[in-house]
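User: I'm preparing a small set of examples for a lab meeting where we compare how different chains pack in three dimensions. I only have the primary sequence for this one, and I'd like the structure in token form so I can line it up with the others. Please keep the answer compact; I'll paste it straight into my notes.
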Amino acid sequence: MCITAHPDDEAGGFGGSLRLYGERGVETCVICLTPGQAASHRGEARTGEELAEMRRKEFLASCEILKVSRPIILDYPDGQLYRQELYKVVGDLVRHVRQIQPHVIMSFGPEGGVTGHPDHSMASIFATMAFHWAARTSLYPELLEKGLTPHRTQKLYYATANFVLPDREPISLPPITTVIEIGNYLETKIKAFKSHTTQAPLWKLFESHIRPRGTREMFHLAASVNIGHAIEPETDLFAGVQE
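Assistant: Understood. Below is the structure token output for the 243-residue chain.
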């Protein structure tokens, strides 16, 4: 399960790994918290509602390229995630976690990824709390009444990188613990990003940062059910996961 803030995050931050594991037969899910209606780049949309509808379709097209099994887009306000009630948003995510029962969750780090976007930071916080709270019987008892019993996800990852963007607010990225070699899926990742046609002005900038850095996606193991061990370098998000 990948938890993001905007349509295009799934491709830009996680696209290679999503496609890689999809090809390996892993069921993948992306939950996008907003439809991206406040984006600076708006295509031909005249209103926020029109842009949201366009970006929903772009999200589905991207997820199809990435072979995402379950693309889910919620309706929280773009650019305003910091204003949302934490318990409610986390509850929405807990419901999905208990329904889908992922082995692994990935999201941004609380710094907001290489862009430092506040919505990315909030997606990280919501995803982190959902990872922990979905396992507890004392939280969201109303879900128990609906048959959604607690689920303990085994690993939580934050996307990270070995570079920062120039001319941005300062960020401190999580240390790299896991490097996924995505090989030819770099091209697939770029293709998926370019399915977000309303964001076409960003395509060239995206490629200029992605291509020179090769075919690797980097993550930080933020939490795990396997406790008491030093973090060893990983090349597989499912290392140590029990079925």
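A couple of notes for your slides: Residues 2-224 form a domain with the Rossmann fold fold (CATH 3.40.50.10320). The chain has one domain: 2-224.

User: Perfect, thanks.
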